[in-house]
Amino acid sequence: MPAFEIRGALASDEDELLELAHHLNTVNLPFSRDAIAHLLDLAQKSFTGEIKDAKRREYVFVLVDREKQRIIGTSMIIAQLGRRDAPYIYLDVIDEERYSATLDRHFKHTVLSIGYSYNGPTEIGGLVLLPEYRRFPERLGQFISYVRFLFIKLHREAFRDELLAELLPPLEADGTSHLWDALGRHFTDLSYAEADVLSKQNKEFIRGLFPEGTFYASLLPKQAQDVIGKVGSQTRGVEKMLRRIGFRYAERVDPFDGGPHFTAPTDEVSLVQRSGTVVVKAIGEDALRTKNRSIVSVQSAEPPYFRAVLAHWDAQSGTLEADAATHLDVSVGGEIGVLSLD
Q1: Same domain, 197 and 261
Q2: What is the distance in angstroms between the CA of the first residue and the CA of the last residue of the chain?
Q3: Cβ–Cβ < 8 Å for 335, 154
Q4: What is the DSSP string of 266-287?
Q5: Quick check: helix, strand or coil at residue 118?
Q6: How confident is the model at residue 199 (pLDDT cuts 50, 70, 90)?
Q7: Residue 324: CATH number of its domain
Q8: Separation CA 253–CA 256 (nearest Å)
Q9: Helix, strand, coil shares of the chain as percentages rounded to 5?
């Protein structure tokens, strides 16, 4: 039977998800029991469709070590980042060149311009995998990351035509952001941690207090300049994955810490293109002849609403390996979601 399973997050996962949040502690997955409880409630109402407005849905997936009955990873999809009551806020990063013939001097400046979107993209985020599971042969980080693209394809109408991923920049060991200390703190009198938590609940303070227009990054301390658009060591692997499947740096950064924003047209992401719904025509060992495995999923109206495992799937014959079929309770003629990993 599959050793690992991904499923929709449940209210009963609160303690374990809080433990995972301790490893990341970001806006999407804050290390706060109240915030995690709210997130899980929102996820359940999203999976069930109780939240009628699709752009307000947020889906949370958990990766489970079945032998230990332990949650070891998580990831999220935010259906739409940027609405009238909660805009998507970013800094455009613009290169500007200046030349004086009189002095025969040329300068290249980085200019930052704050922007707001009220009809923004779908965001993929909240990716966490416990360190001790990062080198397993099952490539569990890939598993918990890729499953989001399968889910997006299965519910394509619920998501936007653009996908966004915000990556963490280099931060100090204590979580300090040099960009925030050099910029945002002067306009809000909040620490980076305080602003990060508050922005999840309400972003009005940014619109109300941040300067409008553009400003030159060259006026900031060098430590702050150096992190703008840079990827931190903890997310370099994610950057490589995103570039491989079709994402590109959008010349935009997070206004809090300068972390880069990567975007891609939803239907052009290779993982979305390789995902789909299929009908199982046979169950048996013939599927084991395939060299590579797929992410295979089923959905239901009952908790946990969505389940996925790594399994052998022979697309040519429509054959699913028996162990996965038994675990997911799939029979011949049943529909499954499949993302090929070859």
Answers
A1: yes
A2: 21
A3: no
A4: GGG-HHHHTEEEEE--EESGGG
A5: coil
A6: confident
A7: 2.40.40
A8: 9
A9: 35, 30, 35
Q: Compute the distance between CA of residue 311 and CA of residue 315 in angstroms, rounded to an integer.
A: 12
> Which amino acid appears at position 98 of this protein?
R
d(CA 153, CA 295): 13
For the chain, the average pLDDT equals: 92
In terms of phi and psi (left: phi > 0; alpha: psi -120 to 50; beta: otherwise), the region of 25 is left
Does 86 or 239 have the greater pLDDT score?
Answer: 239
Q: Which pair of structure tokens corresponds to residue 73?
A: 């990873």
Residue where the block lists tokens 């030159």: 216
For 315, the domain range is 273-340
What is the side-by-side strand order in the sheet with 282-283? 282-283, 319-320, 313-314
Give residue-wise pLDDT tens across range 149-182. 999 999 999 999 999 999 988 877 777 789 999 9
Say whether both 213 and 313 belong to one domain.
no
Residues 93 and 172 in one domain: yes
Q: What is the largest CA-CA distance in the chain?
A: 79
